[in-house]
Amino acid sequence: MDFVYGPGKNHLFVPGPVNIPEPVIRAMNRNNEDYRSPAIPALTKTLLEDVKKIFKTTSGTPFLIPTTGTGAWESALTNTLSPGDRIVSFLIGQFSLLWIDQQQRLNFRVDVIESEWGRGADLDALASKLEADRSHTIKAVCIVHNETATGVTNDLAAVRKLLDGYRHPALVLVDGVSSICAIDFRMDEWGVDVALTGSQKALSMPTGMGIVCASPKAMEAAKTAKSVRVFFDWNDYLKFYKLGTFWPYTPSIQLLYGLRTALDLLFEEGLDNVIARHSRLGKATRLAVEAWGLKNCTQREDWFSDTVTAVVVPPYINSADVVKRAWTRYNLSLGLGLNKVAGKVFRIGHLGNLNEAFHFNPCRLSGLRLNTVGTWD
Amino acid sequence: MDFVYGPGKNHLFVPGPVNIPEPVIRAMNRNNEDYRSPAIPALTKTLLEDVKKIFKTTSGTPFLIPTTGTGAWESALTNTLSPGDRIVSFLIGQFSLLWIDQQQRLNFRVDVIESEWGRGADLDALASKLEADRSHTIKAVCIVHNETATGVTNDLAAVRKLLDGYRHPALVLVDGVSSICAIDFRMDEWGVDVALTGSQKALSMPTGMGIVCASPKAMEAAKTAKSVRVFFDWNDYLKFYKLGTFWPYTPSIQLLYGLRTALDLLFEEGLDNVIARHSRLGKATRLAVEAWGLKNCTQREDWFSDTVTAVVVPPYINSADVVKRAWTRYNLSLGLGLNKVAGKVFRIGHLGNLNEAFHFNPCRLSGLRLNTVGTWD
Amino acid sequence: MDFVYGPGKNHLFVPGPVNIPEPVIRAMNRNNEDYRSPAIPALTKTLLEDVKKIFKTTSGTPFLIPTTGTGAWESALTNTLSPGDRIVSFLIGQFSLLWIDQQQRLNFRVDVIESEWGRGADLDALASKLEADRSHTIKAVCIVHNETATGVTNDLAAVRKLLDGYRHPALVLVDGVSSICAIDFRMDEWGVDVALTGSQKALSMPTGMGIVCASPKAMEAAKTAKSVRVFFDWNDYLKFYKLGTFWPYTPSIQLLYGLRTALDLLFEEGLDNVIARHSRLGKATRLAVEAWGLKNCTQREDWFSDTVTAVVVPPYINSADVVKRAWTRYNLSLGLGLNKVAGKVFRIGHLGNLNEAFHFNPCRLSGLRLNTVGTWD
Amino acid sequence: MDFVYGPGKNHLFVPGPVNIPEPVIRAMNRNNEDYRSPAIPALTKTLLEDVKKIFKTTSGTPFLIPTTGTGAWESALTNTLSPGDRIVSFLIGQFSLLWIDQQQRLNFRVDVIESEWGRGADLDALASKLEADRSHTIKAVCIVHNETATGVTNDLAAVRKLLDGYRHPALVLVDGVSSICAIDFRMDEWGVDVALTGSQKALSMPTGMGIVCASPKAMEAAKTAKSVRVFFDWNDYLKFYKLGTFWPYTPSIQLLYGLRTALDLLFEEGLDNVIARHSRLGKATRLAVEAWGLKNCTQREDWFSDTVTAVVVPPYINSADVVKRAWTRYNLSLGLGLNKVAGKVFRIGHLGNLNEAFHFNPCRLSGLRLNTVGTWD
Asked: Which residues does this entry mark as bearing N6-(pyridoxal phosphate)lysine (chains A, B, C, D) (predicted)?
């Protein structure tokens, strides 16, 4: 194996999975329980109520699915759409690319609106498509709120404004995997129909829970959506919601208790304070990058992400070497550049339950300079 | 909430999720890690090698999917079959019923062979179907190895023998959720094409990992299977297997380390010893039931399950009351009767990392007698 | 090493250290903290207030000392007595023997009142001594509330009554290691001057905290006691109590949080309910012993202990073999016979956070019979 | 309470208790076990063998005592000396002061050699005393290897050289609490007779285990030492060492497993590498202090401590405000100035299982400047 024991804490500054706070680790340090006992439904009920708050919705229906973000995507699409449905989707980086790939493989007709990597969703292109679509053949607009590969945050309020402007009834499906609980997100206000995140992101838990929330309009769409689905079928959940036992199949007891604590921590700090903290740490990271004399991959300030910064390295350096060196020498995990920006950027995650002292670990490298062999002096 | 704090350990004797041994809880008591670091692929590689041993296969390809047993079912079906394919499936209890429901919703044509609950798969009916199927329209035989609802273990070697007798090429897909690692299972020897289990069963881990293993024949079938799949698509895994990074999406770091320890414990005890232990504890449970003067739901000795015993209560008793009383009074979790046997049976799980002293908790009630209000005297 | 991996949970039925409930294990699953931060004093304050409740005192002063029961003994003696002081001490088993040994090595003049092992403290002998001691040369009466080696509980109210009857001012020092939080104990009502227990007993925590409580009279005695002491000196604690920082040296952060949870669990169940539960489980154990046809080492019913039962084996059997067999074969830990009763008794602990189902593990052996080679059939 | 929930990890940079590495936390995440079973003695035997390596001794006898550093001091003194014995002791800071206080209260005659705080032990004064002591009335020299209050490391080899030069037979008792496993220490080579440390220091465990090691000469002295001792008496340990059961009273099972893992981590990294790492991080801290324009409390380079740096603040600032601000604002724990240097210094611990990225947290404040109200700009 090409890794050896290193002393000290691993510093995890990838944009997910993120550092788990001790209280969540503690809450999950437990044996299994019978999920058909009275205790687990009682716990689940509080979770379903409270999880709506992180989406800022009162009318949405949440689902806690034993899956990853990829599964949450599939759940959002298959429950609301039918094969052959036309959707508009923005390609701005690796994660939007992967979602589009999934959309195509699930047999939707996808109008891909591509931007240069480092730029946000091209809303002008969306406007043109909406304007042209008098007959409402577009059934959904799919958008990644925060593209983790390039550190780009899209403007969801603007998407809603466009749809309203054209009185277009398309559903709005949002990947909030690296935004929800960290970047301002307002499901009800912005008319988002399906929003989703994963437990290992801003909730600062282990991987394994896809959290999906559906608007009343999405729930209505689910009644006629013809996409084949079983594991991801919301109807199976709804059946057990009615019974008050909540689970169509076995949930992870540990993740349920972990979510309870993760939500408690969020609410204790205050969701708005959490978002402000991400904003503060995001800005600090960008200032550090500037101080290093390096460029942010994100091309315009209004797209800057408060959860991840993709840093462009000079052309004579392979960014993968930076990541490798950080890992072997400092026990510090940074994110690789992916696909089109492989070798060109490394990524600093500033996502989750962090504080100033914790956060500045990667930034403390600011005194150092990248040398020509791609390592720090 | 209708539950209160009770002192002492909860005794979990449902057939899953089962008790987690301390070393596994310990191994999972950890922070997240970057799954793209060199450490996680190195760990994953050992897991994929070792997990084949629990299936008793050398030629199979394993998949560790962040899902439950229900998702593992879907993975087995969608990767090997196409919509409209004819399959034969045995209905002998609640879990085989649910799998058949999934098969039908995934648009396969399912020949259901039903048995009375408490009886095993009707292999004579299978024989007739195979004999009649000269043109090999049957693409797969789906069978639950151990039906958890009724405590019935099916004879997989006999299924193989029948198929071989008729030189029938149908795939054999096996739900081994409550058998693998606890009841003798031999993937290669019995010509099983897809076998699957879940982490929260005999592996004695938390829920969240579906473990699926595919024979070379199943892998071949996957190349042409037309069922729509993305999250569950084996091809995405194979792509990353080739890259040596193994994961198409984020795995649970905690479950990977948990699986490592669960496998270590299994191999330290010896898989055959583990199976012998389940056999011993299963027999002991059945003797206890006999001593109570109660009936086993399983109708014939050769179907007796070594991982769960469904106990029939007298007609004047509701078995749910027995379960409830055990929980409120003794902090002891038993399994309810499901569907057709609801109210009629309760179930004692004797599955996972148990020993004699641990196991006999539910059986120690043997000195007691069920009274007419469904509680123990 | 003469032990191997055994599957399933170890069943710990020694009278200490006892099984730790999951919530306490969870609470202790944490990193160190700075004990000079504002958080630890705030936590300590609640502990010192609440721990008085387990002694049933409002006027006592508690000390949470990083030590074991042996250290707590030393703390009780050296803070209240001077070398050469005359004390009366009851020898009724191994633990009272060890305490007397300590008393003698600390240079007190000890009047030992010995009883046959299996019998309680000889209070008639105490009465004679008190009657004869007109000049009050006896400075303290030392008594083990519950002798763990023989399963004997002494009558502390009777001791108080005798002292009051003779208007004797001797201090009463009580070892409550295996009684406090499990057997009725009333510090104020019974005029106990120093009472002590250890974290690993009825509080169901790990070893490492000696909990000592001193009456106002004992605190007064501490001002003039000339025994040499530093680590165990109450004055060092009092100095920091006044400062509000509480700790003269570094406490175990983990044990502080563990104690917080242990107390919470006790109060949630209700201390009187906890005592009633021990009484119920103690009685049940004695009935099981009777059913086995074996004899209780304790010779009279009013001495029966509700936290441990010492079981006398037939003369042709070595009780150590019973303990060894339980451990190797059933992963079940029982207590050995100690000193005078070595080989003659084994001990079943029924102490701590137990319930009926948990507890009956050792008793489930009731269907078995001891055979002539000292093992169970 | 004057503290509130803060997000992110607490950064613990006091010189003890220090950060516990995850593997040690994991190892301790367990239930109690019977310490009289065969497993615990087998484990203990490996610990006693291996713990000698951290003292660099082959001839020493180690004791793992359930106590703190203060108790370990008492163990060292009372087992080797008799009341009235003359000892020489160096007062150079708060911890040497406390040890001297203990020595005096234990009734030894202490020649205190005082240095200005910030300076090391005055070895010239020792030389004079040794020279004058032809009749060998000095029974022991007591020295704190690393004074935690001022960040001063004493030269133990020089002490040995002096004693040898004068052929003086005095015992050498060393407090290695904040040095052993972090700063070069050689028990055998330097002729140290009793050395001691605590679990919560360089071993990076919770508090609760005092680790004491005695040379053959110290063991010989213990045979005639007349200090009263019971809990701390080495003889009780030796009795159980001979029996092979090792424990005179109940040890903390959790700390034993924790120590096993702590030693494994030390040996995996290599003790010399660990010491080199502390040297590197210590130097880096001092460079940071220099860069801040602040002064090191330690007055001479050869006394610089590699485990803690005491930083002198400007006279118009109260160092307690710096510590408080770090805690409330950054969730960062620094050490207060103690006693004579209270308000004048704050302390940065760089002790235990740290790495560069972890370590530089407090140092990242280097970009900031102390302002006149004692906080950072």
From this structure: 201
Digit-coded pLDDT (tens) for B198-230:
999 999 999 999 999 999 999 999 999 999 999
Kindly state whether D30 is in contact with chain B, defined as any CB-CB distance less than 8 angstroms: yes
Q: What per-residue confidence (pLDDT) applies to D196?
A: 98
Distances (CA, A) of D36 to B127, C320, D44, D98: 60, 11, 11, 37
Query: Phi and psi dihedrals of D127, rounded to 5?
Result: -55, -45
User: What's D23-267's CATH class?
Assistant: alpha beta
CA dihedral D222, D223, D227, D228 (to 10 degrees): 110
What is the C-alpha separation between B192 and D343, in angstroms, rounded? 75
Which of A337-351, C230-244, D317-331 has the lowest average pLDDT? D317-331
Q: Is-contact D112 D143, C-beta < 8 A?
A: no
Least confident of A23-32, A78-87, C83-92, D282-291: D282-291
Cβ–Cβ < 8 Å for C224, C79: no
- Report the gap between the CA of C297 and the closest CA in chain A (Å): 37
Query: In chain A, whose CA is at the least distance from the CA of C30?
Result: A22
Q: Rounded to a whole number, what is the distance in Å from the CA of A162 to chain B's nearest CA? A: 31
CATH of domain C11-20+271-367: 3.90.1150.10
> Would you call A6 an interface residue with chain D, using a CB distance cutoff of 8 Å?
yes
Which of A3, A206, A232 minimises the CB distance to B253?
A206
How confident is the model over A105-124, as pLDDT tens digits? 999 999 999 999 999 999 99
Model pLDDT, residue D8: 86
Question: What are residue C47's DSSP bridge partners?
Answer: none
Round to whole Å and give the CA distance between B55 and B72: 15
C68 shares contact with chain B (CB less than 8 Å) = no
Residue A89 near residue A123, CB atoms below 8 Å: no
State the ipTM, two decimals.
Answer: 0.95
d(CA B78, CA B74): 6
The domain over range B11-20+270-367 is classified in CATH as 3.90.1150.10 = yes
Which of D360, D363, D368, D375 is the mutation pick for testing A, counting most A CBs within 10 A? D360
C231 touches chain B (CB under 8 A): no
Say whether pLDDT at C88 is over 90.
yes
Interstrand relation of B138-144 and B86-91 (parallel, antiparallel or unpaired): parallel
Q: What residues of chain C, 236 to 295, have a C-beta less than 8 Å from chain D? A: 248-255
Answer positive or negative: Cα dihedral of D112, D115, D118, D119: negative
Distance CA D141, CA D131 (A): 14
Please state which of the ranges B51-60, C145-154, C226-235, D365-374 shows the lowest mean pLDDT. Answer: D365-374
Q: Are C255 and C206 in contact (CB under 8 A)?
A: yes
Choose among C144, C171, C204: nearest CA to C12. C204
Backbone angles phi, psi at C90, to 5 degrees: -100, 130
Tell me the CATH architecture of domain B22-267: 3-Layer(aba) Sandwich (3.40)
- Tell whether B353 is within 8 A of chain C (Cβ): yes
- Which regions of B155-223 does DSSP assign to beta strands (E)? 171-175, 194-198, 210-214
Least Cα separation, residue B364 to chain C (angstroms): 6
One DSSP character per residue, B235-254 reads: HHHHHHHHHT---SS---HH
CB contact under 8 A, A26 and C22: no
Inter-chain touch D19–C32, beta carbons under 8 Å: yes
List chain C domain ranges. Answer: 11-20+271-367, 22-267
Single out the residue of D193, D202, D144 nearest to residue D169, CA to CA: D193
Distance, C-alpha A277 to centroid of its chain: 17
Residues D233 and D77: their CA atoms lie apart, in Å, by: 11
